[in-house]
Amino acid sequence: MVWAARRSATPGVTGADRASLVEHPAWVRLKEAVTALQPLQAKDGSVPERSHHHNAQTLVQTICAATAELAPLFPHDADYLDALVKDFQRWSDTGLEVPDFLDSLALFHPELTRTDGLAHLVVFPMYTQNGSTERKVEAVLLRVLWPDFVAALEAGAYSNAMFVPITFLDFTPGYDSNSAVLFPETVAMREIPRFTWGGIFADREAARFRRVVRAAADTTRLALPPDAARLLADQRLAQETFVMWDLIHDRTHMRGDLPFDPFMIKQRMPYFLYSLEELRCDLTAFREAVRLEADGAPHARLVQYAVVFDRIFRFAISGTRVRNYDGLGGQLLFAWLHQHHVLHWTDSRLTIDWPQVPAAVLALGDEIDALYWRSIDRPKISHWLAAYALVAGTLTPHPASVWARGADALPLDGPLKGLTDAVLSDEFPLSMFYEALARKVGDVVAATSGITA
Q: Within 10 Å of residue 364's Cβ, how many Cβ atoms?
């Protein structure tokens, strides 16, 4: 019955189908011009070599002309696209120095038209998180993914006016990477405005989840429940599941008994604190999914599978071992489930007692929530020490760790920088299980860079 109920249709693009946009001559010219411009730009987005200016200005004119030609296909973005051309022209006319696209960014408001299938053309000098740290011009054709059930959730108890789930249609090289977000703060601009939206590419999240988890399940001989197997087999279903997960995760960063200090905003702190914050948001999404499943929400059970599988399989072995806070969160969840006898590695086979999973996962969420609740009564150093104790109570620190020796070994009487510097780049190394799993499926993880389906 589960397999008979699956859907394979893909929602269309409002106003223009995918082929007509991706193959449109103006988009092809724009994409080629942006790709040719990138090697001429420095890390800050400027074109420093005077000998490159004529070529760069010609490419900018191509971008402007192509944008103007494409603009009628995006009437909902008319003001933004008009301002975008002006920003490009001003950048070109003033010597191609560090770009400033604040004027056009301020007029781009995808959060105001969250219509399923609605397409947008996005062109900015920006860096791509988990892609490139250089603010070079990038161009993306995308569409909004806004299923009716997500719209109903957002209109009710899970309001999140800034959340914009999206999927790729086409992109320039900066997004041929692991980047799965489109955030306004990545754009080159003269000042920081109040941001009103954030985009997350659900198709990339779903595609790499499906590929990595399938490989990990095969490698560990994990028997998947039928609905979990369906999730891995159906890209559209996985995309919708990730949108529901992301909707709740994203809003959680601003809700709950948070530390008074907004530590997620441009502050240097021990990376395990970021691990706990991201894991807290995921476990909150899990908790709400349990609640929604009891109310009959059809995707709620799938969100629970997605949180557990993505965390314990993909997150744990993705990226480098240098302050990998998402990886640490995955390790923590796996070890917690194992030590609470819900996840078992016996006879070289992974098994999970699914009826016991919700209580165990929610118990870890309760531990993190209690840590946060106590934080307002603690000095920052004491909060950091308590957070470390929470993680180290389940995961084994590196033998060379100063933090693992306790408060007496740490420079508590100096600047906080000393405490952060004392955290090893790989403070909590991979377990033997994960070392072996990474060798088996590491190539699969690496191959998901740039994936969209």
A: 20
Q: What is the pTM of this model?
A: 0.93
Distance from C-alpha of 329 to C-alpha of 274, rounded to nearest angstrom = 9
E strand residue ranges, 114-270: 119-128, 132-144, 163-171, 181-182, 198-201
3-state DSSP call for residue 388? helix
Nearest residue to 248 (alpha-carbon basis) of 299, 178, 182: 299
Contact between 141 and 175 under an 8 Å Cβ cutoff? The reply is: no
CA–CA separation, 350 and 344 (whole Å)? 6
> What is the pLDDT at residue 262?
55
370-422 pLDDT per residue, tens: 999 999 999 999 999 999 999 999 999 999 999 999 999 999 998 999 999 99
In contact, 400 and 407? CB cutoff 8 Å: no
Contact 165, 246 (CB under 8 A): yes
Q: In the chain, what are the domain boundaries?
A: 18-196, 221-447
Which residue is listed with tokens 């008319």?
Answer: 78
**350, β-bridge pairs:** 345
Instruction: Give the tokens for residue 96.
Output: 């191609």
Q: In Å, what is the CA distance from 171 to each residue of 120, 182, 451?
A: 12, 12, 12
Helix (H) or strand (E) holding 98: none
Instruction: Kindly indicate the confidence band of residue 130, based on its pLDDT and cuts at 50, 70 and 90.
Output: confident
Spatial distance between the Cα atoms of 33 and 66, rounded to a whole number of angstroms: 10
Q: State the burial class of residue 84 (Cβ atoms within 10 Å of its Cβ: 0-12, 13-18, 19+).
A: buried
6 pLDDT band (50/70/90 cuts)? low
- The candidate with the shortest Cα–Cα distance to 218, out of 354, 357, 350, is 350
Phi, psi of 60 (to 5 degrees): -65, -40
Q: Give dist(CA 90, CA 88) in Å, integer.
A: 5
What confidence tens digit (pLDDT) does each residue in 139-192 have?
Answer: 999 999 999 999 999 999 999 999 999 999 999 999 999 999 999 999 999 999
| pLDDT tens per residue across span 285-324 | 999 999 999 999 989 999 999 999 999 999 999 999 999 9
CA dihedral in degrees (237, 241, 244, 250; nearest 10)? -130
Residue 63: Cβ within 10 Å count: 25
- How would CATH label the architecture of 18-196? 2-Layer Sandwich (3.30)
Contact 280, 249 (CB under 8 A): no
User: Rounded to whole angstroms, how far apart are CA atoms 162 and 153?
Assistant: 14
Q: Residue 180 is encoded by which pair of tokens?
A: 């799965």
User: Does residue 169 contact residue 205 with C-beta atoms inside 8 Å?
Assistant: no
